[in-house]
Every structure is written in structure tokens, then in C-alpha cells.
Amino acid sequence: MYRLTCATALMLSTALPAMAEGVVNIYSYRQPELIAPLTEAFTEETGIEVNVAYLEKGMVERLQAEGDRSPADMVLTVDISRLSAVVDAGLTQPVETETLTTNVPAQYRDPDGNWYGLTTRARIVYASKDRVDPAEVTTYEDLADPKWEGRICTRSGTHAYNVALTSAVIEHQGEEAAKEWLQGVKNNLARKPQGNDRAQVKAIWAGECDIAIGNTYYMGKMLEDPEQTEWANSVNVLFPEFEDGGTHVNISGVALTKSAPNKENAIKMMEFLTSPKAQEIYAHANYEYPIAEGTEADDIVKGWGTFTADETNLMAIAAHRAAALKITEEVDFDG
Ligand code: FE
Q1: What digits encode the pLDDT tens for the residues 149-203?
Q2: Which residues take part in binding Fe cation (predicted)?
Q3: Is the residue at 302 inside a domain?
């Protein structure tokens, strides 16, 4: 048993040559195209070498299995539910520095310092330019109105992005009203939930539906892709709000692992990621909204217009995750 544990630890340390000075090790759910420019800029500025293990799933399980011997110093991921899964499993440690708390607004970080948001993305409505007057799209609550019957497309209700939106509805309206809302949205669907956010915009372009729920940055991504430009150009980006105010946003973020062998370097990296320099890289590479004050979104993103973000702390949204999944099943949203 002991031998096996040793062998496992050895294997992992070979995969990620850690534990020396001048190194920081990251487990990332975010993609190499986005992270590489950030790590290169950090190494250039500090001389600290960055190793990244890009994971598609199983981050919590891997950190748990590695325990104190984990080479990982920090984790990068999108979505508050994925960040809080790492925190809830007891795999992080709190950190608080003036740079972090100055650069990251309070609603986008854990009050205890276990995670920090790095970028935001709004979950908005893509609406057909031909068939929807932008003024028709008002609130999230309105998406349950029968006027949209047979006109809405979305991905699975159990996808993290939609679970967070439903959780936000619970936060604003309570669970009972949220369930009615979700049933109403389901009644308005043009087709069973399927595909990713971009597939919904394609469906609008193809005339299958008139509005879709999706994340903002996909508009930028579609405009970059010759095949998808037409889809993007067939829709307007519209920012619904909750009846009591604010557009739903989620984050990408970072957390320091409990066992971080290179803690000081990791904190330097965390601070770097919230700095104007790194925030600009994020803003231009992935069309997300930077969070550090004084940094601006990409011109394409600014072209979609401004909005007021919901001020709910994302911890509150994460806390409704189980309830959101439950009502999604109860209304058989994907069925
Ligand atoms: Fe995404």
C-alpha cells in the first residue's frame, strides 16, 4: 500500500516537476490557448517557471487522491460551482493580500479568501435580428411568458451555466417561484435542450427559434470563426435583468490549494492574474469582462453595450446549486 502511494507520488512529480524554488504549478480547466499567454507574461515578469496540467474533469478527485503530496499550488476554472466544489472539498486555503482584495470586487471573491474571481461573463439573450425587437427582451422572469412559446432555444438545464442562472432565479424569487419560472421557460422551448451555447445561435440563424440563452463571450468566438460569423451576425446581444435588477454574471476564478508546495509563488501568480496586464490578456483573448478597476473590455465586447451586473455574491448562487438541480429535474427541463 505504502509503495503504491510512493509510486503514485513519484509519477505525479515526474509529470509536473514541482517543489523547487522558482516554480508554480497549476491545475487548469481553462484552455491552453487562453492560459499560455498569461503564464508566459508571468514568467517574463518574475522569472518564476509555470507548469500547467490541463484537466477536462476530475480535478477534485485528483487533488483528493494526491492529498498533501499534490504538486498543485493553485487551480483555475470557470464557474462558481466548480470553484466552490474545490473549496467545499476542503482542498483550498484562504489567502488575503491587499492586491487581491483591491483588484477583485467584493461580490466576485470569497469573503473568507478561498477563491478569487478573475473575469466575468454575462448570461444573456441572443435574439434574432429579423424576428425580435430588442425592446421585447426585458427580464429573465419574462422568458417564462407565453409570448415566447415555441421560440426559445437553450442547452441542457443541468449544464453548470444554466444551473447557476436557475440558482440566481432562486436567490431573487425563492424556490417555488423559480420552479414555476423554469416550467414556463420549458413550455416556451422550440426544441429539447441540446448542444452548446453557440449551437443555439446557429438554431436562430436557421430559423428554428427566435431567442436563446447564452454567455456573452461566445459572440466574440463566433465572429472569429468563418463558419460561425453568419450565425453571430443574425442575432443581437441583449442583456435581460432580474425584476429587482441586475444581469446574471458568472466568473472564471482561481484558488490556492491547501497543500500548495510553492505558496509564495502561487500568491504572486494570483496577484499577477488580477493585475491590469493579465486582465487585458484575458479581455482580448476570450472576450470576457476584466474585473480589475481601470481595465477595459475588448472593443468588440464594448460594442454589445453596457449592463448592470447582478450584485448577488456568487457564494449565494453556489449555495442554491442542489435546489436548482432538483427543480430542473422536477420540471423535466431536458425531457
Ligand atoms: Fe463556456
Answers
A1: 999 999 999 999 999 999 999 999 999 999 999 999 999 999 999 999 999 999 9
A2: 217-218
A3: no
